[in-house]
TrEMBL record:
Residues 36-45 have a biased composition (Basic residues). This is TRAM domain-containing protein. Belongs to the class I-like SAM-binding methyltransferase superfamily. RNA M5U methyltransferase family. It comes from Thermothelomyces thermophilus (strain ATCC 42464 / BCRC 31852 / DSM 1799) (Sporotrichum thermophile). It comes from the Eukaryota. Residues 1-52, 222-252, 383-410 are annotated as: Disordered.
């Protein structure tokens, strides 16, 4: 594959979750996970928190450290030692030893400890790769996948359904059994909390099994294929138009050139049809373009109720005959593909209806939303208190674990009546969970348009303003308008963009001290960082991890806070983690969503 600058174009690949209103992450020096005994220090480098690069660096560093501990560390790769490395462009064979949480294989050449980062490969594979770039400071070499020399027992290439697999950067796992993918994703969550929460292991409960997606292909309701401008056009000066159909598709691994893609089997049928139609349009109209462009493909559903199970409603007006028809006993859904960013897209989750500006954020896998919102519904309130123990006949000594929620679920507590949905978008949680909150629900989002649609969605789902209201503002503003909510009776749902929560927001959250927090995240690494801060009850000024807050220090801070003293008792409440579970919104990719449930630790439990 090509040489040139490595780009991770999150907005352009089919797998990448996209959020409108998503700001660039703040850049600050990489701190990374803290490990005892790791002598190989990288140079201070600026990377985005929770980014692909930071996560990869953490995994490379961990592998280098484990090699050193195991005594099989021959080279000195982490400090960019002078051991000769193969020339960029040369082809070598490597064995994949583990998977990074980025979905890339970490591999070694026989007789060497140098790490190669290899896409589209799984542990146990021997693969031929083309050396792409040496990152000596970081202790690894990026390589392009060429071919499988000896397959891993985990690999079965007959599972691969996409002709672009191992070229397009959208999917990484099509060669794997789905159960194996779920196991890998569970491990990604485990590693995220180990590497980025800065919490001692005893404060993190065992991560639960990842819940799979009902659809493992044909699930993606949004794609954004793109094409480049004509070659040779400069910023200034006359622009010539395309002379032939440009490649139209997605970004391959390790190159900026667009990969021409005719089909994407992880997308829904309606979106796949949209891709075919947009290709046909571009084939006619490419001569009008002097610049590149990104095209939105977003599924839209028109639901027509049926009078009886045998009823066959006609195609409604305005719906093309090519619409995909999905029928149940109760209704027919006509599914089409929208390309106008400002048009309204509609989708259903069970019997809830959601409308959105087609170009704005909404979850991209509709098939998992019913089980996902049910899971939130089943866990958004504290579990019932455990039954009283039977009268003891003998005296025994019991030990309570720090992750138990029993301290927060005694029967003397007030019932939870209020829901705050921070980063609410168009109201997914505010609306689907509203029935559980007699005091009312409030959602907040920075995107005005999403909030306008959230209000409309509440009305469409039969909710009055006193049941469900929305605020268009930066998340920290929330705390000005929830004065009437008793924190003891309030649960806060958080679902921030990939960068996680801002420090200011977390500090105010700790000061407000809601009884329970449900943290939903599309980036488990920033989630682990933020959850670590909630557990310590301390947020540093830079908005990230408390310096020195890892390992025993975190336990000490947590203990000191519990005793009502200690320098990290800064912001108010402190939390304990009840559960952590991954959800597979993006099968075939290395991406995992995560739900962490936290309970406030009360100084005196009552
Ligand atoms: C991952 S989306 C979640 C949306 C919604 N919970 C859902 O599932 O549809 C993150 C949301 O955070 C919003 N957002 C980003 N920065 C924000 C901020 N500083 N304050 C409030 N909302 C913000 C975005 O507009 C986006 O709707």
């Amino acid at each position: 594959m090509a040489t040139g600058q490595t780009t991770i174009d999150v907005g352009a690949t089919p797998m990448a979750p996209q959020a409108s209103g998503q700001k660039q992450h703040g850049k600050r020096p990489f701190q990374g996970p803290q490990r005892k005994g790791a002598k190989h220090r990288r140079k201070q480098k600026t990377v985005q928190e929770g980014s692909h690069e930071e996560v990869l660096l953490a995994d490379v560093q961990a592998l280098l450290a484990s090699q050193k501990l195991a005594g099989d560390f021959e080279g000195d790769a982490a400090e960019g030692a002078s051991a000769p490395l193969p020339e960029p462009g040369s082809e070598i064979e490597v064995e994949v030893v583990e998977l990074s949480s980025t979905g890339d294989g970490l591999a070694k050449q026989k007789g060497s400890d140098h790490i190669y980062v290899v896409p589209f490969a799984v542990p146990g594979d021997t693969v031929k790769v083309k050396v792409y770039r040496h990152n000596r400071d970081e202790g690894y070499t990026a390589a392009d996948f060429v071919s499988v020399v000896k397959p891993s027992p985990l690999r079965d290439d007959s599972r691969i359904r996409c002709p672009y697999f191992a070229k397009c950067s959208g999917c990484q796992f099509q060669m794997l059994d789905y159960d194996e993918q779920l196991k890998i994703k569970k491990n990604i969550v485990v590693k995220a909390y180990r590497n980025f929460s800065q919490l001692p292991p005893e404060l993190v409960p065992e991560v639960l099994d990842t819940i799979g997606s009902p659809l493992q292909y044909g699930y993606r309701t949004k794609l954004t294929p793109h094409f480049d401008g004509p070659p040779g056009n400069s910023r200034r000066g006359p622009k010539k138009a395309h002379q032939s159909m440009p490649p139209f598709g997605f970004t391959p691994k390790n190159t900026r050139k667009v990969l021409d893609v005719e089909d994407c089997p992880i997308a829904t049928e309606a979106v796949r049809k949209g891709l075919v139609e947009e290709r046909a349009r571009l084939a006619k109209e490419y001569g009008n373009y002097t610049k590149g462009a990104t095209v939105l493909l977003r599924e839209n559903t028109k639901r027509v109720p049926k009078a009886s199970p045998s009823d066959t409603p006609a195609v409604p007006e305005g719906i093309p005959p090519t619409a995909v028809r999905v029928e149940t006993d109760a209704h027919v859904d006509f599914k089409t593909c929208i390309t106008d960013q400002n048009a309204t897209s509609t989708e259903y989750i069970d019997s809830f209806v959601f409308t959105n500006p087609a170009g704005a954020f909404f979850q991209n896998n509709n098939s998992i939303l019913p089980p996902f919102t049910s899971y939130i519904r089943e866990h958004i309130l504290p579990p019932p208190p455990p039954p009283p123990p039977p009268a003891a006949t003998t005296t025994t000594t019991t030990t309570t674990t720090t992750t138990s929620s029993s301290t927060t679920t005694t029967s003397k507590k007030k019932p939870i009546r209020y829901l705050i949905d921070a980063y609410s978008g168009s109201g997914l949680f505010t609306i689907t969970q509203s029935a559980l909150f007699p005091g009312g629900s409030v959602g907040i989002d920075i995107a005005d348009k999403s909030i306008a649609y959230a209000r409309r969605n509440a009305a469409l789902n039969g909710l009055r303003e006193d049941q469900c209201r929305f605020i268009a503002a930066d998340a920290p503003e929330l705390f000005k308008s929830v004065g009437a909510y008793d924190p003891d009776e309030t649960v806060v749902v958080l679902d921030p963009p990939r960068k996680g929560c801002d420090a200011g927001f977390l500090r105010q959250l700790l000061r407000f001290a809601p009884r329970r927090v449900v943290y939903v995240s599309c980036n488990v690494h920033t989630q682990a960082r933020d959850v670590g801060m909630l557990v310590r009850g301390a947020v540093d000024e830079a908005g990230g991890n408390v310096p020195g807050g890892g390992g025993r220090d975190a336990a000490a801070a947590a203990a000191a806070a519990a005793e009502g003293g200690g320098q990290e008792k800064k912001a108010g409440a402190r939390y304990e983690i009840e559960s952590i579970r991954g959800f597979d919104f993006f099968p075939q990719t290395g991406h995992v969503e995560s739900v962490a449930i936290l309970n406030r630790v009360d100084a005196v439990d009552s």
